[in-house]
């Protein structure tokens, strides 16, 4: 039997092993303080025993490559930014999908007369539903007053988390459907709509800027930390991130149809029953499904099954909360958050209104309004007045899935902005919607006829393509025009507030004839496209927009981060970085007498973090 050599790691046992005839091997790592093979000095002539220098014992790893480690560090940072974008996109998709799916299932169940009488008696469920919809659609009108204050107070990430939690609260109240549960939760949901999507838009824009910083860290080191990056430098990353975000967002319309496909469709009557008294569809229709049967359920779903479905939706909403909380990083550094809050709450309240003086925003307002019109028209006007009126309620889910998949896939068409002028996606989406709107003006499908269903699915998918180009183009345009971190939350608040105003207008005009709805949609679309092209022409002529001045931060609590007179995050325009260097230069200059020393003032001693990075104060010079 072959003898296996024994490895020995201790010097004392190695000597014992030699006496026993065992093969001895040198230790894997040199022992600190032990004499080397050449006595007390190594090959370089440096003592290797107890008198060895401290740097030789605890110094840096000899093969350490600082440039490689820096590259790996910023690669991890970039991966973290991509993780933040995916987590925020998935969280928004799950949140909005759960909200739309629950609201759709709830309104269909409450519409059925038999369900209301058997389950709730004389509780007045239609009146509760109307007040609930009023709370969801009316409350966002006041969002312009409080959204910037909430975003600055809580921070962008925590505002997203709080708003997603309010959506989950709305889902939880459906376990016990009463006036005092549904209506207050609907009002709270209406208050959270604009803050959620404004903070989401701000978050995606900030991630693109941070990705640029982590990708061009060498240029940042050469320019200095106070130097702003070139204007428009983050635009390519913004296009990619907005395409990812809206591809996830538009999938929420497909996710919202899962409760209907796997649960509610088994209880619905077919189109011959529900559309028995419907005589006109499409452009000839009035209101919302005039003549639609009051009973749409063949059998009533068991309460146990409803609780299971609502529990699944609640679990998904809770998962979205955890996704935003655990995987979304901060949009700003802590010092930047302090600076954003320290401009004064009165100024934060006034700045959204002061931005109206900017002609770019005034020209984009019609597009903001149309952006709200077209989404709600696709989900209500077209889906109900053309789809359900012709193919029945049981095919509503598949029609909205066609819209969702078309919009999700077309969101990546926004990447055409990497090679084409930025106006191309917006104008292309508007042109596509213009053709579809004119086609819907002259088309009135027959009720209970399925042979033209493929036309409805094609129109839904093409409308989704136009919606994706519209949403992606608008958000990207705002992120490029207003790339200052001090303004982004105000700009996205204005954008989503106008969307909420448009949705409220659609809610008020839900009883109008279909031709009137299409006419309003067409006029708004033409005005939006013309106003946008006019804005681009002004910018090409070199007209400078008038922007409100953002006040300097006024810090009441001065920690070690704010020992300097000027704001450390101030841009190079105000000369904040140069002034700090001038103070240190005065400190280095020879000063004559104590009076001169008092006039110059001492240079700030670096904090421990700066000392660890290699900064040296006046004492070390």
TrEMBL record:
One of its GO terms (molecular function) is Toll-like receptor binding. It is a multi-pass membrane protein. InterPro entries: UNC93B1 (IPR043268). It is found in: Cytoplasmic vesicle, Phagosome; Endoplasmic reticulum membrane; Endosome; Lysosome. Residues 590-601 have a biased composition (Low complexity). Its main location: cytoplasm. One of its GO terms (cellular component) is lysosome. Keywords: Adaptive immunity, Antiviral defense, Cytoplasmic vesicle, Endoplasmic reticulum, Endosome, Glycoprotein, Immunity, Innate immunity, Lysosome, Membrane, Phosphoprotein, Transmembrane, Transmembrane helix. Residues 565-575 have a biased composition (Acidic residues). Residues 564-621 are annotated as: Disordered. Signal peptide: none annotated. The chain crosses the membrane at residues 81-102, 132-151, 158-176, 182-204, 237-264, 306-332, 364-384, 396-419, 426-446, 490-510, 516-535. The keyword Zinc does not apply. CDD domains: MFS_unc93B1 (cd17408). Plays an important role in innate and adaptive immunity by regulating nucleotide-sensing Toll-like receptor (TLR) signaling. Required for the transport of a subset of TLRs (including TLR3, TLR7 and TLR9) from the endoplasmic reticulum to endolysosomes where they can engage pathogen nucleotides and activate signaling cascades. May play a role in autoreactive B-cells removal. Belongs to the unc-93 family. This is Protein unc-93 homolog B1. The lineage of its organism: Eukaryota, Metazoa, Chordata, Craniata, Vertebrata.
């Amino acid at each position: 039997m072959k003898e296996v050599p024994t490895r020995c790691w201790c010097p004392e046992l190695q000597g014992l092993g030699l006496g026993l005839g065992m093969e001895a091997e040198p230790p894997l790592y040199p022992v600190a303080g032990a004499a080397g093979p050449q006595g007390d000095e190594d090959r370089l002539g440096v003592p290797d025993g107890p008198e060895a220098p401290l740097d030789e014992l605890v110094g840096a790893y000899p093969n350490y490559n600082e440039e490689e480690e820096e590259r790996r560090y910023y690669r991890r940072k970039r991966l973290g930014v991509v993780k933040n974008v995916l987590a925020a996109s998935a969280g928004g998709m799950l949140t909005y999908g759960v909200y739309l799916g629950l609201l759709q299932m709830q309104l269909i169940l409450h519409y059925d007369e038999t369900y209301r009488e058997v389950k709730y008696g004389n509780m007045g469920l239609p009146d509760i539903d109307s007040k609930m919809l009023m709370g969801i659609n009316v409350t966002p009108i006041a969002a312009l007053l409080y959204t910037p204050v909430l975003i600055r107070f809580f921070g962008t990430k925590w505002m997203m988390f709080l708003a997603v939690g309010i959506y989950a609260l709305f889902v939880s109240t459906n376990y016990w459907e009463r006036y005092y549960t549904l209506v207050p939760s609907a009002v709270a949901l209406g208050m959270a709509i604009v803050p959620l999507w404004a903070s989401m838009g701000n978050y995606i824009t900030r991630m693109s800027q941070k990705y640029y910083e982590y990708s061009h860290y060498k240029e940042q080191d050469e320019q200095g930390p106070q130097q702003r990056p070139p204007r428009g430098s983050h635009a390519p990353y913004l296009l990619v991130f907005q395409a990812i975000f809206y591809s996830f967002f538009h999938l929420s319309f497909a996710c919202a149809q899962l409760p209907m496909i796997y649960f509610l469709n088994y209880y619905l009557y077919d189109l011959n029953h529900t559309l028995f008294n419907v005589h006109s569809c499409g452009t000839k229709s009035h209101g919302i499904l005039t003549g639609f049967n009051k009973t749409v359920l063949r059998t009533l779903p068991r309460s146990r099954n409803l609780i299971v479905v609502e529990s699944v939706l609640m679990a998904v909403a809770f998962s979205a909360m955890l996704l935003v909380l655990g995987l979304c990083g901060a949009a700003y550094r802590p010092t930047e958050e302090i600076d954003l809050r320290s401009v004064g709450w009165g100024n934060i309240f006034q700045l959204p209104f002061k931005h109206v003086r900017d002609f770019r925003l005034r020209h984009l307002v019609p597009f903001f309004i149309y952006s709200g019109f077209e989404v709600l028209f696709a989900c209500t006007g077209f889906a109900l007045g053309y789809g359900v009126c012709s193919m029945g309620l049981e095919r509503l889910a598949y029609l909205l899935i066609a819209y969702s998949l078309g919009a999700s896939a077309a969101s990546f068409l926004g990447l055409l902005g990497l090679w084409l002028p930025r106006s191309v996606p917006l104008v292309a989406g508007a042109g596509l919607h213009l053709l579809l709107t004119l086609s819907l003006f002259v088309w009135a499908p027959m009720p209970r006829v399925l042979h033209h269903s493929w036309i409805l699915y094609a129109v839904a998918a093409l409308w989704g393509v136009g919606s994706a180009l519209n949403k992606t183009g608008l958000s990207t345009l705002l992120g490029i025009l207003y790339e200052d971190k001090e303004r982004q939350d105000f700009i996205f608040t204005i954008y989503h507030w106008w969307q909420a105003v448009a949705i409220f207008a659609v809610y008020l005009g839900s009883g109008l004839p279909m031709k009137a709805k299409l006419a309003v949609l067409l006029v708004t679309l033409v005005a939006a496209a013309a106003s946008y092209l006019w804005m681009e022409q002004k910018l090409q002529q070199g007209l400078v927009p008038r922007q409100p001045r953002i006040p300097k931060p006024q810090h009441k609590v001065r920690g070690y981060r704010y020992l300097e007179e000027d704001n450390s995050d101030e841009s190079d325009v105000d000369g904040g970085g140069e002034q700090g260097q001038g103070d240190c230069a005065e400190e280095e200059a020879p000063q004559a007498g104590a009076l001169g020393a008092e006039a110059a003032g001492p240079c700030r001693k670096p904090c421990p973090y700066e000392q660890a990075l290699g900064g040296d104060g006046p004492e070390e010079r």
